[in-house]
Amino acid sequence: MTTQEAPAQGFARRYDVQGLDAIDTQVLDTFEHVREDDLSPYPGEPIEIVIATDEFSPVCPWSGLPDFGKLEIRYVPRDKCVELKSLKYYLTSYRFVGIYHEHATRRVLADLVKLLDPLSMTVTADYGVRGGINTVVTAKYTAPGK
Q1: Catalytic option among 67, 79, 117, 126
Q2: Is residue 54 annotated as part of the catalytic site, yes or no?
């Protein structure tokens, strides 16, 4: 290729991405923080729940290429806990959504706060290195009055 020729087609290639409406919040489910049939008091309240996965993979909104990240959700429940299978389906719905790292992290926090109404929650996404740059995004929520 000489300097006069156009770049190869691969440089201009872009994969289709889905919009934010593909994020499936309807699949999320919950269960009660305390079992109704367990009458013994739970010492040491409140508890903190930590959920982690290294399979979070939305896509770059510009190129459509996958972004692989480790996601950690850390929360103190008020009344409800997120059911893990439903959370996995929810996170998988990001698979073809074009969304920046920062927006994806904040969106997961917003959706889970709306679902659970926790006392506090922190979502941290540690995305794989791209072009020598690692991105770690942390979004936090604390319930009013806490």
Answers
A1: 67
A2: no
pLDDT in tens, 58-89: 998 888 888 899 999 999 999 999 999 999 99
pLDDT tens readout for residues 91-134: 999 999 999 999 999 999 999 999 999 999 999 999 988 778 89
Distance from C-alpha of 35 to C-alpha of 45, rounded to nearest angstrom: 14
Binding residues: 82-84, 101-102
67 is catalytic: yes
Could you tell me the fold of the domain covering 21-142? Answer: GTP Cyclohydrolase I, domain 2 (3.30.1130)
Catalytic residue (one of 29, 60, 111, 117)? 60
Contacts of 72 (CB under 8 A, 6+ apart): 50, 51, 52, 122, 123, 124, 125, 126
